[in-house]
Write a structure and sequence with these properties.
Length: 308
């Protein structure tokens, strides 16, 4: 199933996305359908991620009824609502992985005229909650701060089961689903702060995410997904999650060493080659550009760029 959060007026609502794109308000649908569920009453995707299997079964039944034409009062046309990030206010910073595709490492080395190999362990950093926006929202850019704004399409994991020191073989038991994330990066800011990741990747609105979370049962092999990013219709990135250096079990196992992962935690898994700063000449994002990130089985994340 596909789950997301919409803004209906001033109210955030957790929704399931029907096959025709209609948004099913799960709290309203549960009330109409007589379903008793604390998670659905809470009305957030976070609560659903934290809930037990019975809640997902309830959602599946409600989706089935809505697809059959019932529950119309709980349905919203996609054109009538604003999409937010699936989890608009994560409880923690978004975890991110750097340098997880060999061709991306190579293009970075060429652009910076350096020689830097693959690390023996994953490179982790985070993006703050103020960076998170949804599909359709404008990515704000601040020319007084940065003139080198770049894009990075990434597959993101949503954790569904808490755990610490998670074994590789158990990693998928802890995954609720997957979404698309664009790791917007201010390259010049990153460099002037010593090359460390956090500041250059933490501008307001620099973490577009969505358009929804697709539950893990609908993505049987997350290591066989095509990732494509375009800017104003021009293809810039075209890769596959099969090319990850550290696969998903390795990332979950490494990140959870001595660190408890909790339901709703988000892990972005790295980007393939094709980023703007490594082009000749470099091609950075500018006011009015439209960036589209598309990952097989997950949909399209679309964001315009807007000077603030």
């Amino acid at each position: 199933m596909r789950l997301t959060t919409i803004l209906d007026g001033t109210t955030q609502k957790a929704c399931a996305v029907l096959s025709n794109g209609t948004m099913l308000d799960l709290k309203a649908a549960a009330k109409i359908g007589g379903v008793v569920s604390d998670a659905l009453v809470a009305g957030t995707v976070q609560a659903i991620v934290e809930a037990d299997r019975a809640t997902r079964d309830h959602i599946g039944a409600l989706v089935g009824k809505a697809e059959a034409g019932s529950l119309a009062p709980a349905c919203h046309a996609a054109a009538d609502v604003t999409l937010l990030a699936p989890i608009p206010q994560p409880r923690k910073n978004v975890f991110c992985v750097g340098r997880n595709y060999a061709e991306h490492i190579a293009e970075g080395n060429r652009a910076q005229n350096i020689t830097d190999g693959v690390s023996s362990h994953p490179v982790f950093f985070t993006k703050p909650l103020t960076a998170v926006i949804g599909s359709g929202a404008a990515v704000p850019i601040f020319p007084k701060v940065s003139t080198s704004i770049d894009y990075e399409i990434e597959l993101a994991i949503v954790i569904g089961k808490a755990g610490r020191d998670i074994a590789r073989e158990d990693a998928f038991d802890h995954i609720f689903g997957y979404t698309i994330l664009n790791d917007i990066t201010a390259r010049d800011v990153q460099r002037r702060h010593g090359g460390q990741y956090f500041k250059g990747k933490s501008m307001d609105g620099s973490c577009p995410m969505g358009p929804w979370v697709v539950t893990a049962d609908e993505v049987p092999d997350p290591h066989a997904l095509r990732l494509v990013l375009t800017v104003n219709g021009e293809e810039r990135q075209n890769g596959s999650t099969a090319s990850m250096i550290f696969d998903i079990p390795a990332l979950v196992a490494s990140l959870s060493e001595g660190l408890t992962l909790e339901p709703g935690d988000i892990i972005a898994t790295g980007t393939p080659s094709g980023v703007g700063y490594a082009m000749t000449p470099p091609q950075f994002l500018k006011d009015g550009d439209v960036v589209v990130c598309e990952i097989e089985k997950l949909g399209r994340l679309v964001n315009p760029i807007q000077v603030m």
